[in-house]
Fold:
Amino acid sequence: MITYDKVTDIFCIVDEFCKNFEKTTKNFILGKTARPPATMTNSEVISILLLFQISGFKCFKHYYIFYVQKHMQDDFPKTVSYNRFVELSQSVVMPLTIFLKTYCAGSCTGISFVDSTPIRVCKNKRIKANKVFKGTAEVGKSTMGWFYGFKLHLVINDKGEILNFLISQGNMDDREPLKREGFLKKIFGKLFGDKRIYF
Structure:
């Protein structure tokens, strides 16, 4: 359940992270900063995305329009339209990913599970005409059949907490991330995946 204290706690942690992230990366950004600046800050966008995970909503659009914009105006007074928020969400992918890896990972208990799930860019019938992620997304196969897009590789513990994640092209073999030292750096004990024990 979302409470005022929960919103405040999450926003404060995210805001502190975003300030440090922007300070660290400002000298490496190519091009000029967009003018005028976005109405909502990166901290607000990331906080809303994180709060959705504990909101109980299954549809993000309904959550944003009918909950955030109607019942959380005191917390987020400068909300933008849903379409604009989706655009802003794309601009925070990098800081959000680093935040998740830094602050949101669980602890290894000695029993871990690894698996992957497809992230589809479009329906299979539209692959040839699709221009989104052209040259980056690839055709791959999962237990649900062929798809065009990416794969999300996850390692979780026996409590269901995410220990690490990696996004790859859709045609990457599910065993490939296991060969990367950084992906399993903090994992010890037993690792299970597709009815196999890797170590």
Notes: The helical segments are 4-25, 42-52, 60-71, 82-91, 93-103. The radius of gyration is 19 Å. Residues 4-103 form one domain.
